[in-house]
Amino acid sequence: MEFVEAVSKRRSEYALNAQGVDTDAVLSTIKGVAGAVPSAFNVQSARAVFLAGDGHRRFWTIVEDVLRERSRDPERFERTREKISGFSAAAGTVLFYEIDRKTHELIDKHPTYRDLFPNWAEQGNAMLQYAVWCAITDMGLGANIQHYNPIVDSRVAEEFSIPDGYRLVAQMVFGRIVDPAGPKDRLSGDDIVSVGQPKSKNQKEM
């Protein structure tokens, strides 16, 4: 698939399962793109933890358990539980982390940019997420992004031996598309992209 086609086809797919998904190939593909993603000052503070099989299912069991403990409405939780079951039925989950210590080190070295480094770190992590998402789409699979952090962070860190200082940012569920999502309203490239024109000499003088 051409790059532009992969970008165009990427979207949130929620009806996923694990049938026929080669998770080893997905892992290899993710590793292939992860090292090429840029970051401000080459800080490389983003990390990804790949979960498949029992690890994937265990993650979503943890999410369900945490949400059950916090729920005060059994009927509403049942709808949540069904949603979690859908995620668990997929082939795997990619956990995206940020190492904040690396950002703080940059702030110490370059205090002039102290207010910008946290934003740049989030942007770098988002680029990793997007690159992985497009790569998964290029494989003919579907994915969606979830954010059950920070309420699950401590249990997930303990269960999967996540290093200290890793902050969970997002969770990407992937799998074979069972029922493709319908069309989505999107602005066109013409709506989003304009061509900047410098003022003419006469306009500048006015």
- Helix and strand string, N-terminal first? HEHEHHEHHEHEHH
What's the overall average pLDDT, rounded? Answer: 95
Main sheet, how many strands, which sense, barrel? 5 strands, antiparallel
Name of the CATH first level: Alpha Beta
Number of helices: 9
| Uncertain ranges | none
The shape, in one word, is globular
Number of strands: 5
Instruction: Name the beta content range.
Output: 15-25%
- Indicate the CATH topology: NADH Oxidase
The percent of residues in helical segments reads: 40-55%
C-alpha Rg (nearest Å): 20 Å
Number of domains: 1
Distance N to C terminus:
51 Å
CATH architecture: 3-Layer(aba) Sandwich
